[in-house]
Amino acid sequence: MKKIIIAIDGYSSCGKSTLAKSLASHLGYTYIDSGAMYRAVTLFLLEHSIKVEDQDRVQTALKDINIRFADNNHTLLNGRDVESEIRQMSVSNYVSEVAAVPEVRRAMVSQQQQMGEERGIVMDGRDIGTVVFPKAELKIFLTADPEIRARRRYDELAQKGQEATLEAVKANLTHRDHIDSTREDSPLRQAADAVIIDNTLLNREEQLDRAIFLARQAG
Ligand code: C5P
To answer: Gene3D superfamilies, per this entry (predicted)?
Structure first.
């Protein structure tokens, strides 16, 4: 089977990264969490008290930001493991504002495209099938019931010992989905040639089986 590019897009907390990670591992592919990159930029801006409105400082900051992934998929910001910090609500509450800045997107998209040059990659995000890899051999658009998504994200945060109420998680998902789908630059859209998987009633194995089947067809 030839190595292909697999794009997985969808709304916040649909389980994209869980599916993408297990699919990549099954196929022996590289997994790239594009959302983690926007989260790392957001963490950097928050740590340096840089607001998105301050375009000059954002531009300068982008030159000082180096994002890499460790072998265990942890996100490294200028060499520092920030995997846990980028999942905190302080970052979640600001990331969509940061990700709507065209300069930020341009910098991230260019890095993401470089990561895909060797193919054999599963990347999840919001604009992977539409902007980053419009020619990806397989595009999956993942959806799930909003209540279920909020509950899943809440449980995930609770498991990690991060404090947040279910209401706050729900409000954050609604806020991010709204900004992500209405921004001018690369809004979240289902690519015309994407296959929809609604995982509201599917368990992880069922989703993975479906994705493996689609990958085999596409490869
Ligand atoms: O995937 P995750 O929920 O961690 O992404 C965090 C945020 O990063 C999203 O809400 C969205 O604003 C932004 N994002 C994006 N484009 C991507 C991936 C994520 O704008 N490809």
So the answer is: P-loop containing nucleotide triphosphate hydrolases (3.40.50.300)
Does ligand 1 lie within 6 Å of residue 95's CB atom? Answer: yes
Read off the pLDDT band of 2 (50, 70, 90). Answer: confident
Within 13 Å, how many C-alpha atoms sit on residue 210's CB side?
A: 16
Closest protein CA for atom 3 of ligand 1: 12
Handedness of CA 48, 51, 57, 58 (dihedral sign): positive
Domain 5-215 has CATH 3.40.50.300: yes
Would the pTM of this model clear 0.90, i.e. be above it? yes
Interface predicted TM-score (ipTM): 0.99
Shortest-distance atom of ligand 1 to CA 33: 1
Instruction: State in Å: Cα 38 to ligand 1 middle.
Output: 6
